[in-house]
Amino acid sequence: MEKRKQFIINFLYFAIILAAAFLLLKFGLPLLSPFVIAFVIAYLLKRPIRFLARKTGLPKKAVAIAMVLVFFGTIGLLIALLGFKALSSAGMLLRNLPQLFSTYATPVLTAIFDELEGAVTRMDPNMLSTLEYLWNQFIQSLGQLVSSLSVNSMSAISSVASSLPMLFIKLLLMIIATFFIAADYDKLTGFCMHQLTGRAREVFFQIKRYIVGTLFVCIRSYAIIMSITFVELSIGLTLIGVRHSVIVAFCIAVFDILPVLGTGGIMLPWAAITALQGDYAMALKLLAVYLAVTVIRNIIEPKIVGSQIGLHPVVTLASLFVGGQLFGILGLFGFPILLSLLRHLNDTGTIHIFRTGREKKRPIEKQ
Questions:
Q1: How many CA atoms, within 13 angstroms, populate the side-chain half-sphere of residue 264?
Q2: What is the pLDDT of residues 99-131, one digit of tens each?
Q3: Which residues of 118-151 are buried (b: 16+ CB within 10 A; e: fewer)?
Q4: Residue 332, Ramachandran bin (φ over 0: left; ψ between -120 and 50: alpha; else beta)
Q5: Do residues 218 and 308 touch, judged by C-beta distance below 8 A?
Q6: Any residues with CB less than 8 A from the CB of 160 and at least 6 apart, and which?
């Protein structure tokens, strides 16, 4: 009975912690995202600010303000320009989608129907009227689908455009908060650390060191995966005769980092457009390259990421899937790091969540 009570207490304890963490990440993080991003930027600029302040002898606040200005004046401006360019290109493509369908897809579909009509005429001429009716219904439904896709996509872009004022406010808050946090970084972090004493401070620094190290390990892991994908695409596209295969492979490999779209976000539409243009052989070759790259990535990703952060490939694969389903990109990267952190804290004896098997080995060794 005492063991059951202890199990229930531990279960409720960890359930409350997990529920609080879920609510904080799901609802609290989006509300505080400008300040969280500002703190991350200030943390990244911390060492350059200290280095320049020590070398130049200028006040640290002045150096911090200058560094933040340089950061947002270069990287921030570049990201903004690329984002606006991508949105405008996507909007233009979606507006012209019905025209592209009528220009490229309709002639190809008509040629397919002519061949099919000839084959049916040779087999059974009585089925010709039924075939024409079904074909007209298919073309009409496909045209309506393309038109609705264009309209819905444009409405989605319009809704994004309508949310730009709030996005601008958040961006402004982030920039202002970055200035304040970078200027008083040591004072703010010192105040927060002063609230932690004894074991809590030791655990915090242990978690900080591990998360920062694991984050760079994850970045290195995905850089390895992107490099392998780039090599595979370069070889595959070169073998099937794609022009400028190396450049195309590099662009697709960079796009492959996105978890929702990935390689299929480019390869599948490319194969579909090639098939609609009548080049079925090239479409099949592109599809074969995509399948090969996808299969190899699904095999190596859990192994590479799991080996780098100390998790089994099955656990890594499950955490990638669950994290992506719950929190999107943040969960895709954060869940494996969280599980790796729990494993590290459990192995070091900071927390006791699960048994590792070492408890049984020690008495045997003593005997």
A1: 8
A2: 666 666 666 667 776 776 676 666 666 666 676
A3: eebeeeeeeeeeebeeebeeeeeeeeeebeeebe
A4: alpha
A5: yes
A6: 87
